[in-house]
Amino acid sequence: MNIIGAIFPLGNFSNENNQSFVTHLQSLLPFARTCLIRGDADQCFRSLLFQASLSYAAIGKRVSFYTPVPFQTIPSLVHTLIPKSLSEANLHLIQFHYLSTLSDIHKHLIHSSCDIIIIDGYLEFPLSKEDDTFKIISACALLKDTYEYLSEKLHRKDLVLLCSCTCAEVSMANVEQRALFDLAMDIEMLEDGDYRAQVHLLTNTNISSAINFRIGRNEIVPLSATTEQQNK
Predict the structure, then answer these.
(1) pTM: predicted TM-score of the whole model, two decimal places
(2) Segment-wise mean pLDDT, segments of 10 residues, the chain, 232 residues
(3) Which residues are CB-neighbours of 165 under 8 A, at least 6 positions away?
């Protein structure tokens, strides 16, 4: 399952050639296994990550969901993927781990045997010191090394890593320049209250996609989806 397709139900959208948008994304991003969600719209991050965990669990994938704050309520869900009954959602395949430090996450990860790694709020700390950018790059590089270690240890080339971060744009630009993730999803709130997710393939700057969506009381509704591929 494509990472973007796990977050949004885009099956009803088509590109300019009347090709399924998800199929088109899959052809553009066949190897994308790691994704960083960032921006200043952190109130929607948990809903997007939770939806991804449900999508993967629905196809039998084991999910490890790391978050420092326990869930009090079920986050907003994408409307076409809401199970009629939560008992049908394979929730038993989603393991929640409430850890408060990056050190705790990495110590737990190296012993993990899951199919999908989801980290809510990675790198949540103040960015006031000059060396914070270095710390961010180092932490992301460590996460990449841990991911690659697990991929080799588990002999699993399809291991997926999805995490969110609200760090400053200038700091995360350095992370993206080093291609420490396959994909970056930048989320911003629009003037009308809707959201836009701009997706960049970090290993190929000529490919980008944009998804506009709206968050209702108990659902996330995709509004439009486009993709662009520029030729050099």
Answers:
(1) 0.82
(2) 77 55 62 82 77 89 91 66 61 90 89 93 57 76 91 88 76 69 84 81 66 71 71 50
(3) 36, 37, 38, 121, 122, 123, 124, 172
